[in-house]
Amino acid sequence: MDEQSFYLNTIEQVVPHRHEEVMAAFYEFLELEHLYESAAETVKTQLNIYDSEFGMKFQRNPIHGIESRIKSPQSIVEKLQRKGFPISAKSAQEHLMDIAGIRVVCYYVEDIYALAEMLSLRSDIRVLKVKDYIINPKPSGYRSYHMIIMVPVHLSTSRREVPVEIQIRTIAMDFWAALEHQLHYKTKASVPPALKDELRELADTIAETDLRMQDIYDQINDL
Ligand code: GTP
Ligand code: MG
Description:
Elements: H1 3-14, H2 19-58, E1 63-70, H3 73-83, H4 89-95, E2 100-106, H5 109-121, E3 126-132, E4 145-154, E5 159-170, H6 171-186, H7 193-222
Parallel strand pairs: 2-5
Antiparallel strand pairs: 1-2, 3-4, 4-5
The site of magnesium ion has 2 residues, from loops.
């Protein structure tokens, strides 16, 4: 289904009859997209400021790369349906915390915690939820530090608080997660238990390598 027919189908489900209501629902989704994009931009700008400040002070950048994405209207509707929530822009704002997603890839494990702390210390950012999958890896072996933060967005006539999901991880954790994610997409059937075990073992090996790299960095830093 192309994007336009998807929008029209979705809107028809929500407001089947009146033209003005169709337009209103469409406009609400546009506003939603703008709001979450603005929140993501704010967070990315802040992260880049930390990165360049750190580079200036310590001649080393903690951030290897930043990616961001806004959930498409299609995935928003799919997730609302899957979780049994009403389908509207308002419902999406209430129930979905990952409409705006940012992935920060760092060099060292230590950088992850430093960035997470700096973000949470910003007085106008509120931390809603933290999931530390580095200390508590997922059964799959997945590691990453997840935060949901509430970010202020100043619009022309109002100030809004918008949730942004941030995943902070090292290059090593990102390498594993990217390949593992692709493997799950590749196989139509589920991954056999023996291979799952192997993937988890590899995640453990990678985590150990990460700590050893950190250790070398610390030792060189102390010379
Ligand atoms: P959702 O409803 O999927 O958002 O679940 P949740 O809110 O409990 O989020 P969770 O903390 O599980 O993190 C979701 C995101 O983390 C996913 O969209 C992935 O990007 C990433 N993630 C979580 N588990 C895995 C995993 O086992 N492998 C990989 N590659 N990524 C994972
Ligand atoms: Mg999520």
